[in-house]
Amino acid sequence: MFYVYILFSSSLEKYYAGYTENVSIRLNQHNAGKGNYTSKGIPWILITTFECTSRSSAAQLELKIKKRGIKRYLQDQGLV
User: Fold this and answer.
1) Which of 44, 54, 71, 75 maximizes the CB count within 10 A of its CB?
2) Which domain CATH number covers 61?
3) What CA–CA distance (Å, rounded) separates 52 from 48?
């Protein structure tokens, strides 16, 4: 099982989307500064996750979210 996750950084006022098999481990990695982009926005908070059945479906959903704009996608879903 794969998960698409959306994070928010209050220090940057920005959202970040990605996908992983383990959301809690990945969130800890982001908050430990183990990513080029996300190291600047610590602390990141988890906004939501979407469950996907495969890596390819998770990658497709991540791309769809990023193309729409993360904040706009969240608004479409009624999450912000």
Assistant:
1) 44
2) 3.40.1440.10
3) 13
